[in-house]
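Hello K.,

You asked for the raw outputs rather than the summary table, so here they are, unedited. I folded two proteins back to back in the same session to keep the settings identical. This is the first:
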Amino acid sequence: MTELSSPPGAAPWNTTTTHRHRARHPGLRAGVALAVVTAVAACGTFATSSGSGSGSGPSARDTTPDPAATAEAGAFLADWAGGRLDSAGARTTSPVKAQEVLRNFTVGLDISGPELTPEEAVRQDDGTVRVAFTAKMPVTGLGTWTYRSELPVRQQQEGGGWKVDWTQSLVHPHLSDTAKFRLEREEATTPKVTDRKGTVLTGEAHPSLRPVLSQLAGGGSGPRGAIRLVDRVTGEIEGTEATFGKEEVQQSDGPVATTLDATWQAAADKAMADKAGGRNASLVALRVDNGEVLAMANSPATGFNRAVSGTYAPGSTWKIVTSSALLLKNAVGLDDVVDCPKYLTVGKEFHNVETSEFPGATFRKDFTKSCNTAFISLRGKLGDSELGDVARDYFGVGQEWHVGIPSFDGSVPVPKDETEKAASMIGQGRIQANPLVMASVTATAASGRFHQPTILPGGAPGGDTTSTKPLPPSVVTQLRTLMRATVTEGTAGVLADLPGDVGAKTGTAEVSETEPNNGWLVARRGNVAVAAVVEQGVTGGASAGPILRSLLAAVPADPS
């Protein structure tokens, strides 16, 4: 989000106008991830100004504001920030007018979640208390407008209560009976973006691509707009209070080619719309042999691109990496008995989903049934940094990727203690990933070699700066066996009726003690690896499972 300061003075609200420009402002209609700030206004905790002395002598004057006045100012700002405009208006000397102006200001300028920070309260000679404040006003889809103003707070009668002495200029110094604000947004035609076969990709046909089409087409110049100060009668512009967006970027004449596949993208968007149940969710599909991204989808379709920029604990899908680390040093065999009790305490109590247990289970069964306690019991087989080393050296996780759009490329910190090491074995603790990362992990496990994911043919600008080693063929064979068994006899049975040699791993990632777990599923079929996460999905098989099944059922063949 871009934060902008307005010149001294201005006044926002009223109509929104749109200007159309020809193909030179990419993505002005594209979805923009908006981080809405929840305001926390002080309530009677303002600093006070000191007077001209400590109180000695006949000329000394106490300028300390009445605490009740500062409390009322704080309460007004808190109500305004929290959207309680009727309550904010009631704290003023003109409740009806104040409520009307505050509502017109926020609604007319598409402002949501303002942050209002009070400064020092000062008592004036006439007894009025003035409280300066900084306003940060998030304008939907554009950025944050920042300016300063102040509140006058006046005691209503001798010994009576305090109220904000209403005037339009306290909302913004330039807002008045003769001038108001107008929000203007610019619209531009985005240059064409095509899939791997030359099919044009659009936000209308592929909703999840809206946040990235402008990045692909024009270097991410993003949406543009401005807040103008205008005459209330004539509408004539008197000044510009804030501008949003980068300068125009001249585009090349030809379309921008990508590795995406329109058929896979359409199926991914449909799977999200039909199976995510309105929850936050995302998925990525990519080619195993070269890392080319075929599709990415998000729920909701517009806004933050969780699929490539999200940060999540990967949960039990991370057991692919953990298993690789154990198999690389022959620390465990698939038929070795690794008991799976209900609980295991390592600084804290760990348990399995639904507190399941499998006494005398083999490592193969521990993987297919996703036994947390069994994996944690093997933590002594790995050095403290070994899991992160394997993730980086073989799977490329945590190295810098050049995907072609902004991405988060995973993080595997060295555990701080034994409890965190135990959590890391099952994809918890401080391990962070997203569907892009986990689709890549799945592809690496299936092929034995990491290929940097990319959305641009031939790779993104910056090139492939990663450095990895191939997994030994024996490890790859064992990983493929484990993932296939997870479909045929384990927790990924939701994919069992799909044609082809499908391998998978489910995941359940704990978020907090009070929120439902996130659900994960990764899978590989033929030359495609896919990964999906559903926030608060509880389990991977029940939440992410139907999404990936819908996708793979709709696109039975590998892409060309």
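The second followed immediately with the same parameters:
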Amino acid sequence: MKAWGVPGYTETRELGSGASGRVVLAVHDGTGTPVAVKYLSDRLRSDPAFVQGFRAEARLLGGLRSPYVVGLYEYVEAPDGAAIVMELVDGIALRELLKQSGQTGPEAALVVLKGSLLGLAAAHRAGVVHRDYKPENVLVAADGSSKLVDFGIATDHGATPGVAGTPAYMAPEQWQGRPASPAADVYAATATFFECLTGRKPYPGQNFAELALQHVEAPVPESEAPEPVRPLIRRGLAKRPEERPEDAEAFVAELEAVACSAYGPDWEEHGQRKLAALAALLPLLFPSAGGSPATATAFATTSLWAPGRRGWLGTGVALVLGLLVVLTQAAATDRTGGAAALSSFATTSAAPPTGGPAPSGTASGSPSASASPGASGSPSASPSASVSASAGASPGPGSSGTAVPPGPQPTPAPPTTPPPSPSPSPGVKVRSVSVTSFRQSDFTAAQVSLAVDASGPATVRLEWFSSDARGTLGASEGSMSFPSSTAATARTLTFRGGGCYWGVRATTTPAAGNGAAVQQFLIRRCEIR
């Protein structure tokens, strides 16, 4: 059956997709105006929380009139689907530029920071905190101008929606679940600015707990940035929100003073030219180029240190548990002071490589690229009334219907089962089998990796289950067998049951000394309220 489309628009191609939706390039039939349409996943339309969050995102975009934020044309709800129709920006994500070049140089980094801060300033004036500023959500147009996209988990200033965001860019107060404030967006913008300057994130933590501790306690790494811009790094990454600029607009004033003093009155022109040159190296990623779509939702697998390590952790664990889901492990290997494995949905939507700029009046004059299709980690609270709003010059008549959660994505194909491995050699001894990674990768899929300690070739049997109870594997969802030599290879498991807990069990032939490895976690659909 053909997927639902917004009436009055002809879809050209897909720009990007994520766990909860997709963004497509389309043309308004009446005017020929190119637009970006963000569709809500069919799988999420029955979830009121996701519907409310998707509707809130459209309402927020409709209220922001800034050349530095992607513009809303209309929000459409109907019995068969929901979509946000946005202005199309012919640009690429800052993340792609950093992948290509490693770093941008000081003047270009300052241009990126200023453009997206001006987008944040529009939100802050409206009483909204973005909460997920990162390179994926900053778009660079062909002329070097930059714009902010993706308000999937934005919330009201002062609200306490819980721990949410992208770990590498979250302010200390975000980790602690404190009320949302513009100072948290200033922190995330500065972390991205640092990455543009140095080619790496401010803190190198390899898991959720390490990042939390570093963002809360580690010194600001200002010495790694060029000396002229260190005051901006020091101010923007201050541990206490009251020590940072109070909002994005205040930070722009500080940025301009530092930039002019360090790089002269033409710094912005020079920086914009540098960004344009970097963007020109990636022509196939622009919407106008017709490149391949890309997935755009990030997840994090984390390890939480054992309680008692540093006084802060006891409080941090209680706060982070609002976001994390605990994995149980039945055949746990002995580890002194060992860490409990955890899997979490740690971010929201990520801008498609061709997504997201601003409304009419953009400083660059370029068309705008759209926001990303990723999932909202913590949908913003909003009234349940449906929205059919327009911002700027709408390309066509508005529509109405009913809302659904952020962005659709095709159901992943069932995992392919490798051919059975040959019978184990006589005398092979399997000392242990363990689950090294198990996390949700989509709303019907998870990824798992194993480790097998054996003296020779063995066969691994992996089974997966869904259940409504923690500690009980429940109904079988599938199984596969493969050689122990490939156990570390990540495998995608498809879950079609309705349980809130997903689990796996791994056994070997010959039998492992520890019998089996079992893990289980609570899925996001049941975690998000």
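The first strand starts at residue 9 and ends at 18.

Happy to rerun anything if the numbers look odd on your end.

Regards,
P.
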